[in-house]
Amino acid sequence: MEKQVIIIFYLLFSVMCLAQNNINPNLFGFRMSTSFVFFDVEDSAFTKRVVDLNPQVLCFPGGFGNFYHLNGAGYGVDLDEVSTYNKGGKAEIGKSLNWISKKKGHTKNYIYDFIFLTKRTKSEVIFNINILNEPTEDYLKVLEMFEDNDIEVIAVELGGELYTREYKEVIDGELYIKLAKKCANNIRKNYPDILIGVVAAPVNTLKRHNLWNKKLSLERFYDAIIVHSYAKVTKGKAIDGKMVAEKKESDYKHVSFSLYKERAINYLQNDYPAKISEYAVAFENKPIWITEWNLQMSKITANTMLQALFTTSYLLEASTNPKLKNIELTTFHNMAGRTLSASMLLKKKNKMHVLVTYKPMKMLSEIFQNKDYKAIKEDIGGECFKYIFTKEDKQIICWINWSAKELSTQIAAGSWMQKDFSGENLYSTTFDQNEIRYNEKQVRNKTILRPYSFTMLIQNE
Prior knowledge:
By secondary structure, this protein is α/β, with parallel strands linked by helices. The chain contains twelve helices and 22 strands. It has helices at 2-19, 35-38, 44-53, 79-85, 90-103, 111-121, 136-148, 173-190, 207-217, 253-282, 305-320, 358-368, and strands at 21-22, 29-31, 57-60, 124-129, 153-158, 195-199, 224-231, 236-239, 242-246, 288-295, 327-332, 334-337, 343-348, 351-354, 374-379, 384-391, 394-401, 407-410, 416-423, 436-443, 446-449, 453-459. The strands form five sheets. Strands 2-3-4-5-6-7-10-11 form an eight-stranded parallel β-barrel, surrounded by five helices. Strands 1-15-16-17-22-19-20 form a seven-stranded antiparallel sheet, sandwiched between helices. α11 (305-320) runs parallel beside α12. The longest helix has 30 residues, at 253-282.
């Protein structure tokens, strides 16, 4: 009997080892997008928050990459150009951002702010290239500027969401390939080590998108496909990652948020892995970069504990779920700006607000700064998930407790530092005094998982 137990133990241990993944630091990335419009890098409070987050990858310029120009103030956006190429809301957003930049007296291009911040964080870089009409010498000049500042550009993104209906009058899959291939060839000649990503359209949605992907999948000039993912957990109408109309599903918040929670968990455990598998099939297992991800922008779920648990779970799942192994790089929607649902740092009435997604991201930075960690997931039931990270003689254990129940769990012998982030309710926000809590303490033998919480145990050395 004892021999059988030993054999079973070694079999289970072997399966666990096979299931382990080395941690990928490139999953811990962030788009800067509107950050420099609203925040000043010379503001030590802002810069310290970004540095403390310890991002491994930063992405520039982000949302206005299709219209970025090196020559010009701010993002160098030409509003007439935006109106010509994009028939949607980009023109209005561009007009607003240009007005704010001018009002704030921003006369320099934001590339200089980005370089300053990147050097402070020591992060690597993804550069979004305007393949529509940025002169070749200008985007090569940007890459030269990074090189001169000893900043490593690991990847370039050739355009952003150019498959959408806003661009369909001016670009299709065939023209996109022509423009992207020309840009890729110029980069390969000058910077052969930089990886190149191309824009994949949503799979199995529209005939136009399928045609785009079919043509692109036959090409070999790129290293990865670029996908944006937004989990829709509220009911209503969504456009471009934003809920423009939302349906009330209950008169009681806790009932509605229970539904959102079920959809969020189902998305992470089932829908998202299935969708990533569809991309893998369409593009013959090409690496995938998720250069924008978040909950769908929503007034209901913005800055709630639900969003905090979702974003934390997303990175833990991407690190441990073998069905997501093709994802080699991710950058969260936006580091900082004025949008409550998209940013981690918010500027409102000249005051910086640290939103609900920031703290758990900062907790996770402990893991993503070290690629020697091996990761494995355990589904312990009851809407609670466990993730174990191990390197040499050190271990970090994480739990996501989506439930309303307080849970007690035994832990290995020794001394552990516990960090936990929790909310009174799934709809609690950082603006609800005392409803969002963060604690640190030393524990032994067992730990308590608060309701609606992210708990991290770090083994003391």
